[in-house]
Amino acid sequence: MISNHLPVLQVVLPLLAAPLCVLLKRSSLLWAFTLLVSILSAVIAWSLLQQTDAGIISYAIGGWAAPWGIEYRVDKLNAYVLLIVTGIGSLVMLGGRKSIEQEIDSKNLSLFYTAYLLCFAGLLGITITGDAFNVFVFLEISSLSSYALISLGRDRRALTAAYQYLVMGTIGATFILIGIGMMYMITGTLNMHDLAQRLPEAGSSRTMLTAFAFMFVGVSLKLALFPLHLWLPNAYAYAPSIVSAFLAGTATKVAVYVLLRFIFTIFGIEYAFTELPLSAILMLLAIAAILLATMSAIYESNMKRLFAYSSVAQLGYMVLGISFLSVTGLTSSLLHLFNHALMKAALFMALACVMYQQGGVMMDNLKGLGRRMPWTFAAIVIGGLSLVGVPLTVGFISKWYLLLAAIEAGQFVLVAVVLAGSLLALIYVWKLVEQGYFHSGNESITRQEAPLSMLIPTWLLVLANIYFGIDTSLTISVAQTTAEQLLGVTQ
Q: For residue 428, is it within any domain?
């Protein structure tokens, strides 16, 4: 039955579809084919999430049983992340056709869609594989295609941004590879499930500490965890708008997944949080990210850079939840993983609409936009309010659980940090509102709303921000179950 082979199809489908894009010349065919592959991938991810209710899915590649062969291992955590990546990828592609045709040279369209599907396949591969070395392999597939996607931006600075990301990404990947090599040296295996059993048996050693340090720094670079985030603002700012929306909604979320997988599953809670002061390290880095990145966002005039710095701050909230080492804290991180993907995809899709009609995403381009592009600007405002954490939006749910975790831990200073971060975010959201509704733009320009093909997917994401802020039954149940599994809490 085909349902037995869904784990491998999750990666093979976009991976095989990518080179086929080179054979298609018409823009409409390229877009329709890529969209179809994205939607089919989302259906597979949803099916896998349903199947994990019955337990962990193990799929042996080529008939070789683990740990000798490569294994795809699906539990609640990576099925959840697979759904985020495929869902966001599908919605972004649904609304991306006109933006892609406007911002990318026609001769590069086949290259764009090929790189997009390769990046898509790489992110899914990182998430689903049960082999540590294959995490590195798929990381390289997604990273190399990301560099190509960013470099396709029309602004010449896109090349510089892609090169900067390449340098930082290569350093991060090298650190990860060294860490994986050291774990192999200790245990003689690369299978993650096998590593999780053998590493504790090997006992604490300098090699194990070095492996952990290399893995942590390498993943933090990919994650854009403060202060290793310097590649991210330019990458988001100068990439084509659809690339910014896709990467903002997926890439950093997969990096958070890798961090969770290596800390909780492979090295284990006892080593990471008892023998090492990881909780304190994560807490300090998270506080710095929340406060300093949010303040950086306030002074930005480029909207993409503003939301890029906002992403660094929001990643800080996720890391802060992890640092509590509690079910409530980890639930808040997993909730924010999903919720932040919805927020950022909606915001960057709205910016794609602004870029399509205004030709830029600077603050000046927003003047009077509330009257000229009311639906687009309303999407930006609602997405911004979700970032702040206003009730009835997904941002409120994440931050509510984070505050509960801080109160449970008796960390009232961190309650103040979360509230301060939200108030600072309100400042840059108000700047947008002021520009759009209280500043008059060029009065000679009549109403120029974005095309419906772009607006409808944008508003689907915006409405998802509201719906999942009201009906939390799915997200909270999955996040809480996953948090309990990671912490080894018995039902």
A: yes
